[in-house]
Amino acid sequence: MHPTVKPALRRGWRDLNTVQFGMATAHAMVLGPMDTATGSFLTLLDGTRGLPLLRDEGRRMGLPDGHVDGLVERLARAGLLDDATGGGPAADALRGKPAVLDRLRPDLASLSLVASEPGDGMRRLAARRSLRVQVRGAGRVGVVLAAALAGAGVGRVDVQDGGCVEPWDVAPGGLPVESIGERRDEAARRAVRRAAPDRPPRRGGDRSAYEEGNPGLSLVIIAPRDGLAVHAPDPAEAETLIDSGTAHLYAGVVEGTGVVGPLVLPGDTACAGCLDHGRTERDPTWPRLLAQWRSGQARHVPPCDLTLSATVAGLAAGHALAFLDGELPSSTGARWEVSVPGFVWHARPVRPHPACSCGTAERAKGEQTSEDEGPHETMSGQQPQAARLSGTWRAHV
Length: 397
What we know:
The chain is α/β, with parallel strands linked by helices. It folds into 2 domains: 85 residues, Outer Surface Protein A, domain 3, CATH 3.90.930.60; 219 residues, NAD(P)-binding Rossmann-like Domain (Rossmann fold), CATH 3.40.50. Helices cover 40% and strands 14% of the residues. It contains 15 helices and 12 strands. The protein has a 7-stranded mixed β-sheet with strand order 7-6-8-9-10-11-12. The chain has a 3-stranded antiparallel β-sheet with strand order 2-3-4, with no helix packed on it. The longest helix is centred in the C-terminal third of the chain and has 19 residues. The radius of gyration is 24 Å and the shape is elongated.
């Protein structure tokens, strides 16, 4: 282990004995009391020395035996320590590509803030290279989103769509103006390759990995150019994803409103069918309206300005990366919506519906009954489900 105080957190002394790591509230931490010699020793925790050499340096500075190990353990427990050589074999392979790693250093620094164990940020970053994501839709949202995932180190990002690129598909960070008239899927895949810091590892039969509902996919993102398919997703189109247990996330823009979510974890969270049943229950005219919207042909270019599409693509990519890194983003069982010109985000929960064929509501009811009958029912709340989801859906990383 080569300990290093996380360089992503700026350091400042609040007084002679108290040091603050970080500025932003989400990750800042205050540590004390700390004597002058220990404060000076912190500068040696830069990842260039292993523990034996650090112990020698500590003795030369007059620190008592065991003090260095105690300090390292204390910093590690506080989540302030990283390991410059940690992360495992995949991380070592990534370090062997310095040009690629340099492209990803901002992402690594960000991951180090949320990774509590030393070396875990590098492990997560390296793990992204083996993941496979499919984006369905090559419009202003889909291609920018796919390029962001590839640029963040996701190894395989495939974009699917039909037709040819129109002038209004072009967007900064997405399809370039030179692609107008080309096949959308081919142009989108070129944009993804340009954004990627490294070529993905070769695998036999890769094309089959992107077939609909293939369980080898880590995530499918449904980002259609027609925002109706995100505002009111068709449950039938997600049946193969539900059946194969493939996690999927919705993202898009409809009539000046951006939508991110829900992130559907089949069998654990509400799906498109639950959303549809819930709307019909609240508004009996919903099926009639939906039939008219789906049968009508769009005659105009849909409203999807660059700032809104970039906002949606960025948030969706962030939620996707959080999931791929082993976390559960706030779009799990919820839809985030934002509209021009105010750009104020609102979260709307999407709950499992008992009439939906996915069976999530019945399963949740059975688990809640089991919890209620257990010895710790007063403390159960929603935490057992959160813990169960985390354990179930982290296995893919």
